[in-house]
Amino acid sequence: MTAAVLLVDDERFARTVYSDHLRAAGYAVEVAETANAALELMRLQRFDLLITDVILPGADGLELLNEAKRLDPNIEALVITALDRVDLAVRAMKSGASDYLVKPVSPEALQVSTQKCLAARTLLAENKVLRSHLRLFETCQRVTCSREHGHAVGLTLEAIALETRAKGAIFLERDGAKTSLAGRTGLGTADAHTLVLTAEAAVEGLALSVGHRARTVVPLPSGEPGERAIAFPVAEGAELLGVVVALLSEELSPEAATSAEFVCSHLGLALRTLGHLKQVEHLAYLDDLTHLYNTRFLELVLGREIQGGRPFTVLFLDLDCFKAVNDEHGHLVGSELLVEVGRVLKGCVRDEDVVARYGGDEYVAVLIGIDSGGALKVAERIRGSIESHVFLSREGPQVRVTASIGLASYPEHTRNKSELLDLADRAMYRGKRSTRNVVYIASPDLPPVPTR
Question: I need a surface site. Which of 133, 164, 215, 228 has the fewest CB within 10 A?
């Protein structure tokens, strides 16, 4: 591509000679006699290099250089003057000039200096692009290394808004057939909601596209003049995980679009990795036999609910005479019965409640947002369901068992996590020492449970 040069000199002879030399060297040259004329040309077109005399009518060349840098910070400058003074050279360099020549200037010196200035411009432009690519690469690394969903989405939206010069951006996450807003940047609640409504159709369109690589222009029903939205797919393999929708007020360049797609590809990888980690983490909280939650997860739930401050109740359940089942039918049948008890328990509580196997034939249910009065009804339902259920009817033994249940509520009985479990355990043990097959509510005077 031919470099564009603006030559400014009030001497006609100098303008003619210098411009002829430069055109002969292959440059596209425009000439101006004054600083004002030069600035008018700069407002009309872009120049790679400004060559200016220091002494000009109306304003000197250094003032022109300052104004030229304000109009185009990337323009290179070469200052020519008849005054061979060090202070002028220093001022020229401080104003942004890349070189300084003293008249008379030979064609060879002018050509060498011009090439040096343009080479510096090319190098700076390349460095700027490299720095931009490095910044983008580092952002993508942070996205893929993130271990928090919200952090990965936030980094992605900020990067895409920066690369596309968008007013703001949102991330619509796809879970099966359901789409929901999973993050936003630069937009208020109302604007984000409007963008969600207009972009939902784009999500379905991208889900049907081959490879999910297409960028979709999303029309806005309202907004500032010239605003439009573009949806970028976030996919992992052939699966569309969602779309990033950027709200633009200017034309999107191919380079910016490519950068946005690059970031979205890393968000797809991050979301898939986080999904795998969540699955592994979920397995770490499950009991191997019953696939109910284990005591590790129970500790987390109790801590979370106490920190939340709302009432909840713990039910501590132990099967009555379970040893007799093992002795009569064997441990394999006993294990199968424990699994079926877990299914009965799950059927007696809500989806938001937590059922965990505490160990052996003991279970704990955490009833979220339920005080002791409501929990007593649930506990009785569990006790009655276990009593009336015929276990292992398909396998043949048709075993019947009963259960003793202890009940303790937060904050009614205690505000301490370990005390809550202990009180429920004591209440259960009191029931086993009395009639069995009973629900017992905690009280401060209950004796401690013997060491198991």
Answer: 133
Dihedral, CA of residue 260, residue 261, residue 267 and residue 273, to nearest 10: -160
Its pTM stands at: 0.48
The CATH number of the domain where 154 resides is what? 3.30.450.40
- CA pair distance 277, 38, nearest whole angstrom: 62
For residue 197, the SS3 value is helix
Average pLDDT, integer, range 202-226: 60
Q: For residue 33, what are the CA distances in angstroms to 37, 84, 425?
A: 7, 22, 97
C-alpha 339 chain-centroid distance: 39
Closest among 260, 277, 272, 282 to 236, alpha carbons compared: 272
Give domain status of residue 431, yes or no. yes
Tokens found for residue 300:
């987390």
CA 234 to chain centre: 12
Bridge partners, 67 (sequence order): none
Place of tokens 């937009």: 187
Nearest one of 15, 25, 95 to 51, comparing CA atoms: 15
Supply the range of the domain harboring residue 356: 295-441
CA–CA distance, 152 with 148 (Å, rounded to integer): 6
CA–CA separation, 186 and 381 (whole Å) = 51
Among 319, 321, 320, 417, which residue's Cα sits nearest to residue 366? 417
Give the whole-angstrom CA distance, residue 65 versus residue 56. 12
| Span 97-107, average pLDDT | 82
* Tally of domains within the chain: 3
C-alpha torsion angle, residues 419, 423, 429, 433 (rounded to 10): 130
First-residue to last-residue Cα distance in the chain: 86
12-45 residue pLDDT tens: 888 888 888 889 888 999 999 988 898 999 999 9
CA-CA distance, 229 to 219, in Å (whole number)? 6
Domain final position from 250, 278, 306: 278
To the nearest whole percent, how much of the chain has pLDDT over 70? 89
Residue-level pLDDT at 236: 79
Quick check: helix, strand or coil at residue 370? coil
440 backbone dihedrals φ, ψ, rounded to 5°: -125, 135
Q: Determine the pLDDT at residue 219.
A: 64
Judge residue 452's burial from the number of C-beta atoms within 10 Å of its C-beta, 0-12 exposed, 13-18 middle, 19 or more buried: exposed
Neighbours of 445 (CB within 10 A): 5
